[in-house]
Amino acid sequence: MQRDKTEPMQVACPKCRYTEIIYIPIEEMPRCPKCGIRMVIMELLDEGKST
Ligand SMILES: [Zn+2]
Known about the structure:
By secondary structure, the protein is mainly β. It has no helices and three strands. The protein has a three-stranded antiparallel β-sheet, with no helix packed on it. The chain is elongated and about 35 Å long. Zinc ion is lined by residues 13, 15-16, 18, 32, 34-35.
């Protein structure tokens, strides 16, 4: 297994529901461009869906 492989992850703002895709590992969670608060992880996306 490759431990340093990047994984797509969807994060969302708990306040305004703005969502964004990030790639882990990441140093710190991105902040919502509207609210300026830290976003939270929504779900771990399955990377094998690019058929
Ligand atoms: Zn927000």
